[in-house]
Specification:
With 379 residues, the protein is an alpha/beta fold. It has 2 domains: 276 residues, Acetylglutamate kinase-like (Carbamate kinase), CATH 3.40.1160.10; 93 residues, Archaeosine Trna-guanine Transglycosylase, Chain: A, domain 4. The strands form 3 sheets. An 8-stranded mixed β-sheet has the order 3-4-2-1-5-9-10-8, with helices on both faces. The longest helix has 25 residues. The two termini are 29 Å apart. Bound molecules: glutamic acid.
Length: 379
Amino acid sequence: MSELRAKILTEAKRIVVKIGSRILVDSEHGGVRTRYIQKLADSVACLMEHGKEVVIVTSGAVGTGMAELGYAEKPKVMAEKQACAAVGQIDLMYAYREMFRWVQLSCGQILLSADDFRDRTRYKNLQNTIKTMLAKKIVPIINENDSLAVAEIKVGDNDKLSSDVALFLDADLLLIFTDEDGLFDDNPKKNSKARLLRFIPEITPAVLALAGAPGETGSAVSTGGMRSKLEAIRAVVNSGANAFLANGMKVLPHEVLFENALGTLFAGKKQKMNSRRRWLSFVSTPKGSVIVDKGGVKALQKNHSSLLPVGVIQVGKHFDAGDLIEILDESGNRIARGIAQYGSDNLNLVLGKKTPMVREILGSDIPEELVHKNDLVLF
Ligand code: GLU
């Protein structure tokens, strides 16, 4: 193990471990892979003996419930999926509780929706609860509140949930376990010569492109594909934490830290993001969106400037002053998010216009920036 890699991994104190459905659900017979959870509990106990704090983000509720309710594929109807989650979540937690008891560890269930992150008071409560659990050496086991969450309040997939959790807990390391060995320089399912990349110092657009198109999704039971994993990892490394992607069928968490396990390590940015910027970056569903031209993208990414109306070509989704908005490029890629200083109705009057003209149209009191750089987080 290289020195840097060893340092990053062994020095991590607070660790969020995300386990995908394919690892937790028996794809042949249905039901929870209890043997796996037993090994996971052992591994978590090992980490805790080394003074680590561990939070688990689990998938598998819908997948487990599907088998019990007789679905071969994930149902498309939301209420049916939610019924699967309601049934599967208890089977899943039963397995966690039993297996963690074997290693003398307590675990506790936390089910979240995006609102818990958006609302400042709920967010603080949640932080206090999880931090108290960690202080008492209880392992929090987190999933999305699937049986209640509707589209508007959904975090999305559990890759996103795990990065939200890592960000709001200021974790040092996010471990994502999937059914691939890590990130390859080509699709390993199509190209047998594809090479596993062991270390990614920075998630550039070229690295993102290795994961396929935005929106590419997973299998019969899982939700996110490689793209959603990289998006989640990108949010975490941008905040200054590190991330590791490994095959949960072969690798356990303690092996990543102490045994040079196979996988891809993504280095966090040197500068740690402060809590306000982390908060901005993980609020799950921005209210509105705007599309910026190439010049606007460059100003944001290269010069870290504020966003001015001159760079905006279109309003995507309506928003009001003070709302969180998403900033997209012309191909629909997410570039940044931030707090808008005025609403989309006003913006529509000044698209592509320079500041003097903006002030002439909207009045001299209007702020120069649509989004000030202090309220802006790049992806
Ligand atoms: N929360 C979902 C479940 O427990 C999984 C979503 C995901 O894997 O991204 O079934």
